[in-house]
Every structure is written in C-alpha cells, then in structure tokens.
Specification:
A two-stranded antiparallel sheet has the order 1-2. It is built from four helices and two strands, in the order ααβααβ. By secondary structure, the chain is mainly α. This is Peptidoglycan-binding protein LysM.
Length: 95
C-alpha cells in the first residue's frame, strides 16, 4: 500500500511539472471564448490603428473602437503603453 501511495504521488508530481513546463492550460484555453484576442499596447498604438488591423469584416472602425472600449471598460479611447486589452474576434482572413 505504501508503494502504491508513493507511485501515485510521484505520478501527480510528474503531471503537475509537465503542466507547468509545457504550459498546457494556456494552450487549451485558446484566444478566447469567441475568438477574442488580447494584445499588449505598444508605444504609439491607438484604438483606430487596431481597428485597421483587427476589425472583423463588415465592422466599421468606429463600431470596432466602441466595442473595444465596452469590452475593456475604457472610459476614454486613450491607451497606455504596456496595457493589455481584449479585441473582438477578427475575421478568418486575419484582417
């Protein structure tokens, strides 16, 4: 019984180490529930440039900016370098 307990605990330790080293939870999580992506704001970035890069097909830049502000509860469209924001799902073409 002692050998079984030790083998079980060793197996748990190996599994925990594998999860930490391989970062499996992040890989399984994906970009978000609806294909949303998180970006880290770089110097000079603004919501309008993100709209040009990431707005889903058919969504206007103004609607994209409004949605990003709502998703991130931003009181103003101003962004700060290093800030992480969630962007709505992009179209499959990766626009």
């Amino acid at each position: 019984m002692l050998v079984t307990a030790i083998a079980f605990l060793l197996g748990l330790a190996v599994a925990a180490l594998a999860l930490l080293v391989l970062d499996v939870p992040s890989a399984l999580a994906g970009d978000g529930a609806d294909g949303e992506r998180t970006v880290t704001v770089a110097a000079g970035d603004d919501l309008w440039s993100y709209a040009d890069l990431y707005a889903p097909e058919g969504m206007s830049d103004a609607d994209f900016v409004t949605e990003v502000r709502a998703l991130n509860e931003l009181p103003t469209p101003r962004l700060t370098q290093g800030q992480e924001i969630v962007l709505p799902a992009a179209d499959p073409a990766g626009r």
